[in-house]
Design a protein that fits this description.
CATH class of the domain at 214-293: Alpha Beta
Radius of gyration: 27 Å
Structural class: alpha+beta
Strand content: 5-15%
Shape: elongated
Helix content: 55-70%
Distance between the termini: 42 Å
Number of strands: 14
CATH architecture of the domain at 214-293: 2-Layer Sandwich
CATH superfamily of the domain at 214-293: Regulator of K+ conductance, C-terminal domain
CATH topology of the domain at 214-293: Alpha-Beta Plaits
Length: 560
């Protein structure tokens, strides 16, 4: 009865796959969590035994929206990191070269068909988007419809098997085995790097600081009498700012030229450690309005200033004219939806979102020098979105013949490149192309999982056949394809590129596009230093790996 209902109304099978799949994917076993995509695929493979099928048009539309949104959100970071983040970018190239070589070796040894080879690539590299680009490539091989359906089914089956083992492998390797190989205590290394960047203590994921990194104090001037506000702020590296002066019940505007007098009451804001250091040089603390009077404005700013790319926060503040940077503090740095430490030694990249705090006038001045303020909005520019997807479909129609192999980007590859371009344009001209982060996340999550559910339902009948045919070979191949690039990057990153261990391991998690791996790393290190390396390789690999789908299909069709 249930099977008949699902076949008659496949939309029920679709949403059941999403609901049950995300429920299964939410459970964690130690650091391992399947996630909604893999959970949806497993449920769809089971429900696919009913014969429920989703329209190919819906599947293609869902994937186009997902891949465009993926490129759109990553565009500013991708272009920022391709040139100047070259040390980490090399690791993404290592991932591409090694994973393709291992997949092709598996094709020769196991005599794999193009679909199974592409599924191994997607699962071993833990990159779900490869399923879509490879499925499109198989559809263009000119084979009978039944054979195309079989090969496309093999993609998702090989992916589901190899992904499970690849996920466990990269999580355990990056957080447990790699530190043993390097003979380092990962937590101690992360704390050392944290302090090197200017932090004054470790911060674990999910924890909050006992005291905020930015603070405000009201002081009665004693030792600071006779000093100008500008000299006092400069003495402490402009990491403090006098925001208000109360003298004889009159409020004086806190200009750098103002000379402090004994018994003035001043409100001082800035980095907590700098304020603690400055207290004896200014006066005695008194109870007053507190931090809320100092930080009345808080805005998110997209960093577009080319001159600041690659500089640390400390260097950016040092280069700013005294009047430009005064009273403006960076409370947080967000890169690709990940929060990285806002420490003096943290490097800035174009496309970062900086959370600025201070009084309204100071923040507005600082934002104008850094980039543009991200206005809170719930509206999506559907004109821009529609034109972007159309451009992606047009780009995907171009093809090239390389070494006797026809390679066409297809809708997936075309929309990915269009998303990168349109996202970059949006970062340069913020008045057009609004796509709020929540809306973009919905497009990515719903688009990908709808596509995954559709292909899983279609592949359900062939899944058991492929597993019986190859047995343990698929899981073992998945482990090797995951482990090979990770080991190569560990050696190259440490011995040749001299990367710090926490950032290196974060970069290895990023080159695999593995969110569970970076979550496990942050838990082991006790602070967010691995995220710095993760965001760079994640931005680059998220673009390069999906583009490998057509390449592997073409090569496997020649070799297999």
């Amino acid at each position: 009865m249930l099977w008949t209902l699902l076949k008659a109304q496949p939309e029920i099978a679709l949403f059941a796959s999403l609901a049950i799949g995300f429920f299964i994917g939410s459970f964690k076993l130690g650091p391992i969590q399947l996630g909604g995509v893999c959970g949806t695929l497993i449920v769809a493979l089971i429900l696919g035994q009913s014969g429920a099928r989703i329209s190919p048009d819906l599947k293609n539309i869902a994937f186009a929206l997902f891949i465009f949104a993926l490129g759109f959100t990553g565009g500013p970071q991708f272009f920022a990191n391709v040139g100047r983040g070259w040390r980490y970018g090399i690791l993404s190239l290592v991932e591409v070269v090694v994973v393709v070589a291992l997949v092709l070796l598996s094709v020769r040894l196991l005599r794999l068909d193009p679909g199974t080879a592409a599924g191994l690539l997607a699962g071993g590299a833990t990159e779900s988007a490869v399923i879509g680009t490879a499925s499109e490539a198989i559809g263009r091989l000119g084979l009978p419809a039944a054979e195309i359906a079989r090969l496309q089914a093999n993609i998702v089956t090989a992916y589901s098997v190899s992904y499970l083992f690849g996920l466990v492998t990269i999580v355990l390797f990056s957080s447990q085995f790699a530190p043993l190989i390097l003979r380092v205590n990962l937590r101690d290394e992360a704390e050392r790097v944290w302090r090197k960047l200017g932090g004054d203590g470790a911060l674990s994921e999910g924890q909050t600081l006992a005291a905020p990194p930015l603070a405000g104090r009201e002081l009665k001037v004693t030792a600071g009498a006779g000093q100008s506000i500008g000299d006092l702020e400069k003495r402490f590296g402009n990491n403090i700012s006098v925001q208000r002066v109360l003298r004889d019940r009159s409020v004086i505007k806190a200009q750098p030229s103002v000379i402090l007098k004994a018994n003035d009451r001043v409100m001082v804001g800035g980095r907590r450690e700098a304020i603690v250091e400055a207290l004896p040089a200014i006066g005695e603390e008194v109870f007053g309005g507190g931090v809320s009077d100092v930080y009345v404005e808080k805005v998110d700013v997209m960093l577009t200033a080319r001159a600041l790319h690659g500089l640390t926060l400390a260097q950016a503040r040092a280069r700013a004219a005294p009047g430009e940077g005064r009273g403006v503090f960076v409370a947080a740095v967000t890169r690709l939806d990940s929060t990285i430490p806002a420490l003096p030694g943290t490097q800035l990249h174009r496309g970062d979102v900086l959370t600025l705090v201070g009084n309204k006038e100071d923040v507005a001045r600082g934002a104008s020098k850094l980039g543009y303020i991200i206005r809170a909005t719930q509206k999506t520019d559907f004109v821009y979105l529609g034109l972007g997807v159309i451009a992606g479909i047009a780009i995907g129609r171009f093809s090239a013949r390389v070494g006797g192999i026809d390679i066409t980007l297809g809708t997936g590859g075309g929309c990915l490149l269009a998303g990168l371009l349109f996202g970059w344009i949006r970062s340069r001209y913020p008045l057009i192309g609004s796509l709020p982060s929540a809306a973009a996340q919905i497009l990515k999550d719903f688009g990908l999982c709808t596509f995954i559910a559709a292909v899983g339902l279609s592949a359900g009948a062939d899944a058991l056949r492929l597993i019986r045919e190859f047995g343990v070979a698929l899981p073992l191949a998945g482990i090797v394809i995951t482990l090979g690039p990770a080991l190569a990057s560990l050696f190259i990153g440490r011995m040749l590129l001299k990367l710090e261990v926490p950032m290196l391991l974060g970069a290895i998690a990023g080159q695999q596009c593995s969110t569970p791996a970076i979550s496990a790393l942050v838990g082991v290190t006790g602070n967010a230093t691995p995220v710095i390396g993760y965001t760079i390789t994640y931005a680059i690999s998220n673009v390069l790996l999906p583009l490998l789908g057509p390449l592997v299909v073409g090569l496997a069709s020649k070799l297999g």
